[in-house]
């Protein structure tokens, strides 16, 4: 098995130029046991690299002599996360940033983002672009149709330095992630965008992904960049619960370890190699309770808060992702020192901008003198022409498929959840899945995972819904399966919507044939009652036919009871069921969110 590293083959990376920016020398560990020889080689290579960039003058209070080198330098980190192939400006609420006062700003779009990155680099030449993962996967048609190759070319063009591995990087499995890293044509569809596909110019990082049979890294755990005379260690990690939210077939043979423990192992190695400035890019985050881009209104018991509390004090910044939220926090590390923990929403609507003030002599980050902010990717700037050309090409090539009309709607149908947890769009999708399997497989109800509803269905002036619109809502191409469960098993499935730990609460979106009551004041495991199907009370001993997608049927999102289904009947792809339902029932109005009663 091969480990993912920056270079196209195993070994150590050398100088790695990025397009349009000054070269930063690079060192990445690309697999195998971490040995003393590795440490010695790390130290030698890190010392032997050539500094690139111009040092920033020290503050006036430092009063350096005329010929003396400045005592500090500034390195800017430009962060983004959960881009999900949104090359075009995203529509509806997915394309707006909510500010602290509740007002909104239209934001996002790859060409606008590229201009913002260029402007930020112009302000501070010593800049690194880092992402918190999910650059690809669950993408709109213009990227997904080409297995997200246009998005990788976009990230290459803005000079991305490194990225964490997100769960959606593994949507098509580990072998596809290898191809995304190294380049080459897709084994089934070939090279449909550009031939050859060059692959990512930046390394994907995850210190906590290993091969199960050997314990060796399956992905490079970290990389080191020497910028402006200082070494910056960049450690990657992904959520340890990743196996619960991706198809198990694609990650066979891989293990996902504790995030903080893996980060700390890499941090110790970097520290021993003399790398004192350390940054984490991690695909895990916290939820928020309102707030704007630079607020820190975190919900209680968040995953990244818990990880931060255990991550070594040697780490100076944590750039997070996964939860599609916006926050700019100062959190205490295990010694009580405050460090930046930040996330920039999703879909390229924000950029995190962290200016690290670094002691040139010791290589340490001066946290008290460093700053962080989230900047809105406004659409008032001039789009970057090179990136706009990538976007236009992808959109043009996808247009013959994407522009086909599949139905009409009467108004926006949104994925925002009601107090019960169901949403108009989630209910609509469940209805479409039931309709697609009712006659062919005897389905009586359908259940849809809320995380698979990726965008609002936005009303156009003529009400038309295109194939691209529908694809943006349902991009995974999951296969519908209808299985038999007892009434007791159905009750157990619904009780699994609440878990005391990750992934927390996930309310399955029910078809119109299913109704029940949830009592949130009851203990977990005893919250569901009064279950009916077509108005008839469910008998615990009777059997029922239930349609879910193959992700849920395999126990995805920790719905383990769904793996106990029998008499499976395969159905259509979920997107095909959705478009067929829109065609047959146009114009479609938002269904009511009255299928779950909150007691």
Question: Can you characterise this structure?
Answer:
- This protein is of the alpha/beta class and 599 residues long.
- The protein folds into two domains: 31-56 and 73-389, Purple Acid Phosphatase, chain A, domain 2, CATH 3.60.21; 405-598, 5'-nucleotidase,  domain 2.
- It contains 13 helices and 28 strands.
- The strands form seven sheets. A seven-stranded mixed beta sheet has the order 1-9-10-12-13-15-14.
- Helix 4 (149-157) runs antiparallel to helix 8 (385-402) and helix 9 packs across helix 13 (574-585).
- The longest helix is centred in the middle third of the chain and has 18 residues, at 385-402.
- It starts with 24 loop residues before the first strand and ends with a strand.
- Residues 6-66 have low confidence and may be disordered.
């Amino acid at each position: 098995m091969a480990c993912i590293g920056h270079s196209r083959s195993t070994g150590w990376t050398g100088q790695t130029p990025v397009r349009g920016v000054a070269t930063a020398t690079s060192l990445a560990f690309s697999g195998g046991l971490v040995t003393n020889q590795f440490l010695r080689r790390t130290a030698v290579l890190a010392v032997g690299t050539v500094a690139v960039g111009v040092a920033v003058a020290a503050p006036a209070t430092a009063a350096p002599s005329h010929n003396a080198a400045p005592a500090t330098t500034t390195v800017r980190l430009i962060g983004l996360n959960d881009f999900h192939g949104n090359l075009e400006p995203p529509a509806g609420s997915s394309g707006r940033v909510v500010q602290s006062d509740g007002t909104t700003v239209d934001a996002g779009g790859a060409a606008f983002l590229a201009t913002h990155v260029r402007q930020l680099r112009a302000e501070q030449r010593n800049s690194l672009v880092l992402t918190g993962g999910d650059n690809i996967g669950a993408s709109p048609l213009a990227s997904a149709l080409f297995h997200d190759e246009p998005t990788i070319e976009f990230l290459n063009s803005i000079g991305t330095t490194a990225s964490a591995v997100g769960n959606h990087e593994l949507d098509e499995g580990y072998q596809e992630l290898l191809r995304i890293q190294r380049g080459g044509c897709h084994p089934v569809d070939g090279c449909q965008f550009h031939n050859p596909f060059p692959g990512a110019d930046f390394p994907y990082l995850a210190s906590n992904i290993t091969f199960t049979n050997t314990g060796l890294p399956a992905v490079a755990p970290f990389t080191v960049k020497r910028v402006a005379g200082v070494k910056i260690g960049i450690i990657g990690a992904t959520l340890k619960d990743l196996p619960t939210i991706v198809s198990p077939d694609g990650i066979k043979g891989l293990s996902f370890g504790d995030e903080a423990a893996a980060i700390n192992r890499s941090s110790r190695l970097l520290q021993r190699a003399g790398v004192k400035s350390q940054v984490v890019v991690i695909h895990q985050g916290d939820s928020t309770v309102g707030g704007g881009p630079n607020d820190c209104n975190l919900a209680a018991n968040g995953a990244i808060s818990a990880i931060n509390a255990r991550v070594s004090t040697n780490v100076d910044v944590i750039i997070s992702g996964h939860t599609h939220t916006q926050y700019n926090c100062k959190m205490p590390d295990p010694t009580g020192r405050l460090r930046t923990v930040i996330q920039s929403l999703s879909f390229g609507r924000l950029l995190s901008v962290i200016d690290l003030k670094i002691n040139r002599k010791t290589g340490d980050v001066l946290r008290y003198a460093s700053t962080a902010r989230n900047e809105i990717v406004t659409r008032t700037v001039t789009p970057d022409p090179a990136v706009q050309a990538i976007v236009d090409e992808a959109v043009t090539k996808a247009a013959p498929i994407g522009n086909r009309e599949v139905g009409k709607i009467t108004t926006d149908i949104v994925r925002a959840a009601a107090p019960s947890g169901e949403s108009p769009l989630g209910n609509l999708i469940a209805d479409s899945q039931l309709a697609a399997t009712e006659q062919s497989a005897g389905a009586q109800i359908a259940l849809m995972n809320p995380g698979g509803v990726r965008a609002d269905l936005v009303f156009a002036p003529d009400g038309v819904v295109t194939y691209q619109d529908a694809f943006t809502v349902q991009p995974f191409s999951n296969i519908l399966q209808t299985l038999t469960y007892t009434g007791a098993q159905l009750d157990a499935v619904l009780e699994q919507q609440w878990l005391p730990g990750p992934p927390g609460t996930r309310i399955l979106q029910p078809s119109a044939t299913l109704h029940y009551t949830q009592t949130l004041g009851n203990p977990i495991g005893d919250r569901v009652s009064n279950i009916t199907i077509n108005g008839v009370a469910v008998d615990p001993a009777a059997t029922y036919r239930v349609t879910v997608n193959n992700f849920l049927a395999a126990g995805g999102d920790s719905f383990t009871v769904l793996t106990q289904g029998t008499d499976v009947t395969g159905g259509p792809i979920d997107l095909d069921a959705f478009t067929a339902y829109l065609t047959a029932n146009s114009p479609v109005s938002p269904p009511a969110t009255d299928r779950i009663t909150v007691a």
